Amino acid sequence: MNCIDKDILQRYLDGEMDPDQKAQVDKHLKECQPCRIQLELLQTRAVQIKKALKSLSDKEAVRPLLSSMVDGKRSVIESKELQHKNASGNGWKPVTRLFYGIAVACAIILLFLYTPWIKPEESQDVIQMQAVIQEVDANRPYSEQETVITVIDPDGKVTYLK
Amino acid sequence: MSQNSLLLRLSINAFNQLRTFEEIYTDNYARLHNVAVKMVGDRENASDIVQEVFIGLYEKLSGGTVVLYLNTYLYRATLNKCFDCINRQKRYSTLEVVPENSVEDGSLESRERKVVIRRALSKLKPVERAILIMYSEDFSYKEISDATGIRFSSVGKTLARTLDKMENQLKSQRYELY
User: Fold this and answer.
1) CATH at residue B112
2) Residue B167: domain span
3) Any idea where the domains of chain A sit in the sequence?
4) Selected residues 36-55 of chain B with any CB under 8 Å from a CB in chain A
5) Whether complex ipTM tops 0.90
6) What span, in angstroms and rounded, lies between the C-alpha atoms of B141 and B150?
């Protein structure tokens, strides 16, 4: 006969088995020493782990007064919500927060790049074409010589300055 | 919420027994608190969780809802809140979940043993932790199944595996089981 699975032995020792199945296990255990040893080990293990976990019980737990708990429940709930909000910054999930962060950063960069911070001032200069026609005679005094300056403004008006 | 409303007798369980909210609170607080302490690892969070559970129950009952399976409701609500708390701890803490303020009285040796047990527990998945803790509090498979949401037929198998894991965790920290 095949030996019994651990989980069936576990159910057996916890008394969580229907009578028929229990009778079968009982019968097998009578005939099989390895299973009896296994059952004994499982039992010791269960007792020890239960004992270990029971040692963690908080014996000093003080039950708050019911009236104080119910009367003050609004403030408790509010302060807890606040705590959660503070813990997570603003109540958003980290991924959402990261996404919004990146979006805002990009928007600021784009704004910075495309903002014409320094507009080139419109030029107030009048473009003119001008030419100086001068025939210089080195042997005559400068005051006796004539200089003609031709100025053509943007409208095409021609002025001769002598 | 006046004090008088607490004394309203509420029909709340499957056998149509009448119990006051105060009786429910007094009868169940310590056990729920113990489960929560072991689940989340510290007293402060456990107290908050149990308080929230009772506030939730109070609101349900005073709103006219009939809670048929009171124990199932209480343990399921507590475990769900513990799972949320564990997730928060994981998200916002890179430290190992063995809070220092959980250290109880006792000799150095017993304190060290408790730290080892807590550490081993913290290595289990939250559901496994819940199964083991409820098992250690002598709950039946049916109650464990109702509170954790695991199928009744799977409790034995999951429990056996979880006990294996816990045993290995304890052994790896040189905790003598036998």
Assistant:
1) 1.20.140.160
2) 3-172
3) 6-54, 66-111, 129-137+144-161
4) 37-38, 43, 46-48, 51-52, 54-55
5) no
6) 10
Q: Give contacts of B 63-102 with A, CB under 8 A.
A: 88, 91-92
Q: What is the pLDDT of residues A116-143, one digit of tens each?
A: 666 666 666 666 666 666 677 777 777 7
Evaluate whether residue B100 is within a structural domain.
yes
pLDDT digits (tens, 9 = 90+) for B73-129: 999 999 999 999 988 887 776 545 455 444 455 677 778 888 889 889 888 999 999
Assigned token pair, A88? 């997570």
Mean pLDDT by 10 residues, chain A (162 residues): 85 92 92 92 92 81 72 49 50 78 92 74 66 71 76 78 74
B24 inside domain? yes
- Residue A46 with chain B: CB contacts under 8 Å: 135, 163
